[in-house]
Amino acid sequence: MTAEVRRTDPDAPLWRAAQVFRLVTVVYAVSSHFSTVGNYTNPNLAWFFVALLVAWSLVSAGLLAYGPQLRTIVVIVDQLAAVGLMAATRLVADHEWYSNHQTMPTTLWVANSVISAAVYGGPAVGTASALAMATVSAVVRDQINLDLWRDATAPVLVACGVAMGFATVTARHAHRQLEQAARVAAATEERDRLARQVHDGVLQVLALVQRRATETGAVGADLARLAGEQEEALRRLISEQDTDVDRGGERVDLTALLRARADASVTVSAPAEPVVLARALAEELAALASTALDNTALHAGPDARAFVLLEDLGDEIVLSIRDDGVGIAAGRLDEATAQGRMGVSKSIVGRAQWLGGVAVLDSAPGEGTDWEIRVPKEKSHG
Amino acid sequence: MAEITVMVVDDHPIWRAAVARDLDAAGFRVVAEADGVAAAGRRAAVVQPTVVLMDMSLTDGSGTDATRSVLAASPRSRVLVLSASSERDDVLGAVKAGASGYLVKSASASELVDAVVRTAAGHAVFTPGLAGLVLGEYRRISATGPKGGAGPSLTERETEVLRLVAKGLSAKQIASKLVLSHRTVENHVQATLRKLQLANRVELTRYAIEQGLD
Q1: Residue B140: which of A238, A271, A370 has the nearest Cβ?
Q2: CATH number of the domain that residue A342 is part of
Q3: Is residue A310 within 8 Å of A275, Cβ to Cβ?
């Protein structure tokens, strides 16, 4: 539960800082008392008040360490103690002394109550406390008419209250934003996890339907095909999500671009590691693969399957697009030209050359077509 | 021929039941099922199955971990990865850990039966996707490995065969295209896996010795 407390308590670091300040002020107040007590009319009573100051400082430290719920008490008692001790100056010193020196617990110690109020309630509360302390101090010292330029008590205390108050507000605001960001991140993570689980389950069932349905005749075969297509689509979606296909950068993963073309009749094989290329090169190669695949879909026959193989040879990329369709008969080149296939082939060869590489088509009747495109990677990774 | 016993490792009970039914119908004996890495290792030690059908995502770890623990507990078993996972690295990891083949879950019942028979007979079951991964892995090793060829590498013939597998040709088609026997093609394909697994084992051993864990 400590993490819980820390999470919901943005003020804790400020309170700890205030405690350190309190310790410093106590040391200052006590040593200051040693040097001034000789001028007091009632040194014994003065020592009693200093003892009270030290006692309250210790008790308040204990209360603050105990937990956030006691802060209200500390703030209230701080205000009363400061006012009370300032007022008590009149009991231990004569008018001659207190009108020309700072009041008893010292201005520095009084700043504690201003800081407590500011950390507790923000700049408005801090300023209010500062003005109250400055007023009490002025009244006690009978120096209300004195201009601010000679006595810095009021401006210093007000500055203290405003600064600490704003620090508190800022800390709380930052804390809220941080919490919100953490919540959003946790929600996103949870959504991803759920999606993965759901996807996995759906994939399993789709694969199962595909296998079972094939065994139950013509209607089943249709069902199997549909399940297969959906499985492939979902899998592609997930892998796109996993690899973040395109971040819009200068370099992209060609494997991811090619996988976007995979479906029930197109298999894409590639290395496990992403094949990262300059955007222009990757996009042109993916477009070349698309052209070849479109050609397959048009001419290879209805049951033809296509296989895309991507190889990264270090300085060279090899992209193969093969189908197991009807192929092109050697004697049917004219017919093929008439069908527009040769035009497409010339275009693929030309575009590969433009990339500084070569494209070779291997085809025989009944053996499908096999494109092999080799292009240099241009510059090495860097 | 001795009876082929099978263990099915998958975190989905529906899937395990369906696969077990298909295998039973085909005359195999499904001797164990497991949903996680720990259970798979424990049961494999007891039943020593001929073939282990392995999913990639399990309740308490990956199929790669399970492959490793199954083969440690039952070294003569053969692991066939059967996965719907789109995580390609995972499959490569399982193969390097000793799995002898990979089949996608959407494969038909007859493809599955055929793959189990071939796995039991000691053959490697390759899909075009796996061939692409293995080719890529050899190239990664030769590109990043130490100079002088300390890592495993493919012969020209093996590369040729593997590329044709990746392009979707069957072993028979490859044999006739390269004028080789069917058996020779199978041997080449298997050799590509064996070298990768051996290198992986050597790597792990070296790492263990360096870390003082041997």
Answers
A1: A271
A2: 3.30.565.10
A3: yes
Q: Tell me the chain B residues in contact with residue A309 when contact means C-beta distances shorter than 8 Å.
A: 128, 132, 163, 166-167
pLDDT at A330: 55
Q: Please check whether residue B136 touches A, CB under 8 A.
A: yes
What residues of chain B lie within 8 A of the CB of A269, using their CB? 128-129, 131-133, 166
Please tell me the class of the B132-210 domain: alpha beta
Kindly tell me if the per-residue pLDDT of B65 is higher than 60: yes
Fold held by B5-126: Rossmann fold (3.40.50)
* Three-state SS at A353: helix
Cα separations in angstroms, A282 against A243, A251, A279 = 15, 8, 5
Domain extent, residue A278, equals 243-382
Name A354's Cβ contacts closer than 8 Å, sequence gap at least 6.
none
Where exactly are the structural domains of chain B?
Answer: 5-126, 132-210
Q: At how many degrees (to 10) do helices B128-144 and B182-210 cross?
A: 50
Amino acid A285: pLDDT: 93
Q: Are B14 and A239 within 8 A, CB to CB? A: no
B129 close contact with A: CB closer than 8 A: yes
Does the CB of A212 have a partner CB in chain B at under 8 Å? yes
Sort out which chain B residues have CB atoms less than 8 A from A238's CB and list them.
Answer: 86
CA distance A237 to chain B (A): 10
The per-residue pLDDT for A241 is 58
What is the number of CB-based contacts under 8 A between chain A and chain B? Answer: 101
Residues A21, A168, single domain; the answer is: yes
In which residue ranges of chain A is pLDDT below 70?
1-8, 145-150, 196-197, 236, 238-248, 328-343, 379-382
Instruction: Please tell me the predicted confidence (pLDDT) of residue A382.
Output: 34
Out of A177, A201, A216, pick the residue that ends a domain: A177
Question: Does residue A349 form part of some domain?
Answer: yes
Among candidates B106, B133, B168 on the partner chain, residue whose Cβ is nearest the Cβ of A231: B106
Same domain? For A17 and A162 the reply is: yes
Residue type at A253 in one-letter notation: D
Distance CA A205, CA A168 (A): 55
Q: Note whether A201 contacts B: Cβ–Cβ < 8 A.
A: yes
Residue A223 falls inside a structural domain: no
| A266 lies in the same domain as A173 | no
Place of tokens 């993963």: A253
Common-topology check for domains B5-126 and B132-210: yes
A148 and A42 within one domain: yes
- The number of beta carbons lying within 10 Å of the beta carbon of residue A179 is 13
- Domain annotation covers residue A285: yes
Percentage above 90 pLDDT, chain B:
50
Domain count, chain A: 2
A215 neighbourhood in chain B, CB within 8 Å: 109
B133 in contact with chain A, both atoms CB, cutoff 8 A: yes
C-alpha span between B65 and B58 (Å, rounded): 10
Q: Are strands A316-323 and A369-376 parallel, antiparallel or unpaired?
A: antiparallel
Of A177, A198, A230, which one is at a domain's C-terminal end?
A177
Supply the pLDDT for residue A334.
54
User: Could you report the per-residue pLDDT of B190-208, keeping only the tens digit for each?
Assistant: 899 888 888 887 777 777 7
Q: Within an 8 Å CB–CB cutoff, is residue A271 touching chain B? A: yes
